[in-house]
Amino acid sequence: MAHDLHLKLKEAIRTKNAEATVENNDGSSTVIEFKNVSKSYPNNVHALKDVSFKINIGEFISLVGPSGAGKSTLIRLLTAAEKPSSGDIFVAGRDITRLRKTEVPFYHRKVGVIFQDFKLLPRKTVYENVAFALEVADATNEEIREKVPNIIEIVGLTSRIKALSEELSGGEKQRVSIARALVHNPKLLIADEPTGNLDPVSTWEIIELLFKINKQGTIVVLATHDKEVVDTLERRVISLRDGSIVSDQNKGKYVL
Ligand code: ADP
Fold first, then answer.
1. Class of the domain covering 2-110+186-249
2. What is the pTM (predicted TM-score) of this model?
């Protein structure tokens, strides 16, 4: 039964898979650009070596590669958690390698991030977890009361709104973390192994949700080890190995 559901969800993703094409106000469509980005760590590890690529509006990108290839490093650079050793990273026209410390929280409002281990507040409810992301951004109570139930509905968790996050299934927890990532209507959603802890049915439900969010205009960057997901999506795949891009293909497949 569960197996059938997983196949049905997978099929639904295949049939819905039509690429959105949108342009920026200036007619261009590039939102993210890595320009000759390298990152070395003090132990002389070259985690990324001269990496360049562009991401356009509407894209859904899988980032794949074996362990140690540099995926997490790339994501930390994209979220401005770290700075590159050299090169530039432009997001919506801004070089994020030059952000001041005080500007980083504002950048984070434009970029949603979700993780394999969800990073929720376990003793708080679904509502409170999502509301918290707005509270720390100084939203008014009125804004919180209006926005939170709407976002929870988008991720399909209205019936669980009062449940404590520690009582939720893995798939439900990931939905909460997606809701939290969406509170500021980000242009970019970064998903770092979001299905790594999920069963196949929840995996496809989460991928379907990411797909829906992408359709509404948010770029999705999905770092994953899940070959079946990448191959089913038939979207762009960037493959990293030893800190370099070894392939970058539209409608790509998972290749190590
Ligand atoms: P992936 O996410 O693809 O598994 P990572 O980006 O985590 O790869 O790692 C790329 C390389 O950089 C690895 O050799 C790793 O050991 C090294 N590395 C990552 N983070 C650090 C760090 N903070 N300090 C030192 N080396 C690191």
1. alpha beta
2. 0.90
